[in-house]
Specification:
With 280 residues, the protein is of the alpha/beta class. 49% of the residues lie in helices and 12% in strands.
Length: 280
């Protein structure tokens, strides 16, 4: 196993001692070490629930006979960063995410990796890291956000971030009151998940599935549904099978799979930012 360099032999006694500090037992030395690269934080709605997704992944890894170790990367919410100088930091964060994931995985000699991501620059950043390292890997997204609901003239209407963008324009033109805008603002983003709409995040998560790097449903199961945790658990199990069969990202991500992913993107009416990210 790749991880033998940090756990086998007399000279690795200091390494093992540090792993004991983490709660490992002697029986863990015979098991694969699986890195869980998580992008959980409390500033990005698409990432605020990734702790629970990660717990399910951990359970799947342990059930499959592996030992999970979690590390974290940063994540930028493009929705919060846009329309001010903060947006200049969004795309560079992709490279930082790729580099930090690679550093953590290589420094600790993980045998395989589970990437937990959701939003715009995080998914491609982690994909870049996976392909560069070419260590067995699987992706798990946090899932899309559900749409919100408002009542207008005794009629229920569905609203989302696209509805809010349109409402801003109507308010600026004087076609909508600020009170109506506030009603939509409060309802458009009702909870966790990547922004409801075929923006970059949901597009890239669907494309990751189409590329073959995630299980079916990765791009479409809402973040609030219990099926999302089931997917995370099964992904933890699946990475053990991927490792056993020694399937690497470069075995999966080929010219054909990339062309297939772009076809899926076009069929879904997804974001054209996919060109910027997949070609990277």
């Amino acid at each position: 196993m790749r991880s033998d360099v940090v756990k086998r032999g007399v000279e690795r006694a200091p390494h093992r001692s540090l792993f004991y500090a983490l709660g490992c037992s002697a029986s863990d030395w015979d098991k694969p070490f699986i890195g869980v690269i998580n992008s959980y934080n409390r500033i990005v709605p698409g990432h605020m629930h990734l702790e629970s997704v990660s717990r399910a992944v951990h359970e799947g890894i342990r059930a499959g006979g592996g030992v999970p170790f979690e590390v974290n990367t940063i994540a930028v919410c493009d929705g919060i960063a846009m329309n001010h100088p903060g947006m200049k930091y969004s795309l560079p964060s992709r490279e930082l995410i790729a580099d930090s994931a690679e550093i953590a995985a290589q420094a600790h000699a993980f045998d395989a990796l589970v990437f937990i991501c959701s939003c715009d620059k995080i998914v491609p950043g982690m994909l870049m890291a996976a392909v560069r390292m070419n260590v067995p890997a699987i992706f798990v997204a946090g899932g899309p956000m559900m749409a919100g609901h408002i009542w207008v003239d005794n009629e229920e209407r569905t609203v989302d971030l696209s509805s809010l963008f349109e409402a801003v324009g109507k308010t600026v033109r004087g076609d909508m009151s600020e009170e109506q805008l506030e009603m939509i603002t409060r309802a458009a983003c009702p909870g966790c998940g990547s922004c409801s709409g075929m923006f970059t995040a949901n597009t890239m998560n669907c494309m990751t599935e189409a590329l073959g790097m995630a299980l079916p449903g990765n791009g479409t199961i809402p973040g609030t549904k219990s099926e999302r945790l089931d997917l995370a658990y099964r992904s933890g199990l699946q990475i053990m099978e991927v490792l056993r069969r020694d399937i690497r990202p470069r075995d999966i991500i080929t010219r054909n799979s990339i062309e297939n992913a772009f076809a899926v993107d076009m069929a879904l009416g997804g974001s054209t930012n996919s060109v910027l990210h997949v070609t990277a």
